[in-house]
Amino acid sequence: MPKFKNTYNTGTVRLPGYDYGNNGAYFITICSHERQLLFSKIVNGEVVLTQLGEIIKSGLLDTPLLRQYVTIGEYVIMPNHIHAIVFIHHGSDSPEQLASEEIYSTLIQDDEYKNHFGPQSNNLASIIRGMKSTVSSGANKIGFITKVWQPGYHEHIVRNQEELIRIENYIRNNPYQWNSDENNPVNW
After folding, report:
1. Which of 12, 13, 14, 69 is most buried (most C-beta within 10 Å)?
2. Which of 9-18, 136-145, 170-179 has the lowest mean pLDDT?
3. DSSP result, 62-115
4. What is d(CA 16, CA 125) in angstroms, rounded to the nearest whole number?
5. Which residues contact 59 (CB under 8 A, 6 or more apart)?
């Protein structure tokens, strides 16, 4: 699986020529501010959510209610980061029933397409921004006074079924790997 330690930055690592509003499956990782252990604890390979972790879980699961073209697939809320698969499926007949076995687009690159600032709605960045904002508001309501999120996020466009299955397994097994995870401060 990919290593994430060096990919958490505010610079862009987006694929040039790719429209992140395309239908597809996206593997995302979002870190806590300064990678503080805020979201959960791992006890015997099981995730035990903090109060903030519960707010994050609600934010993730509420995203498809606010954006009917989004489904959240496999996800895990680790102590200082979250992993999730986000499906974007504009025009789907049953977006709320999206099966994780399906991928809704192939990698489409167009030499003429240039990533540019323009309408920033209905794409992956707006989905992440909305979820982060919802969680930050919820954190403020419970008196959380530090920043919740590190700027930016890491994304990977899921290219095929085999890769989707591999990433789903990685997400499911992430809590069991916490003791050796390079995102665990014990291993820094």
Report:
1. 69
2. 9-18
3. HHHHH-TTEEEEEEEE-SSEEEEEEEE-TT-S-GGG--TT---------TT---
4. 15
5. 131, 134, 135, 138
- pLDDT at residue 149 tops 60: yes
- Our count of domains for the chain comes to 1
Residue 73 maps to which CATH number?
3.30.70.1290
Q: 132 lies in a domain?
A: yes
Which of 9-13, 74-78, 167-171, 176-180 comes out lowest in average pLDDT? 9-13
Query: Which range is least confidently modeled, 23-32, 79-88, 119-128?
Result: 119-128
Within a domain: residue 187? no
Q: With 0-12 CB in 10 A as exposed, 13-18 as middle and 19+ as buried, what is 135? A: buried
Whether residue 151 contacts residue 10, with contact meaning beta carbons closer than 8 Å, is answered with yes
Contact 55, 142 (CB under 8 A): yes
Decide if 186 is inside a domain: no
